[in-house]
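As a warm-up, study this chain.
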Amino acid sequence: MKAILEPLKGKYYGTKITVLDDNGTKAHIEIWDDGDYTPSKRELETNDYTEKQWEENAVVETGWEDVRLPIRDLDIVSDSHFESKQSYELALKIMDKLNQT
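Now compare it with the structure written out below.
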């Protein structure tokens, strides 16, 4: 059995794990939990930001000319379409357990 964390792509609809059994059969696990509205490292990196910037609420470039804002004022977690740190960490734990079998 092998569990694989799927990459983030497009609009977020949950953290996805694909599980392949020894016969090649696929199963899918989806985790979607806003947690405490803290984005995962992967979510931040998708937007070219870092966990350190989030933790420090650093002033960052917004992509708009000459506009800089504290990172937590951006729309990264304005709705539920983001991977939370909690979802990502749970996915890693599930994968670890499945890959041990």
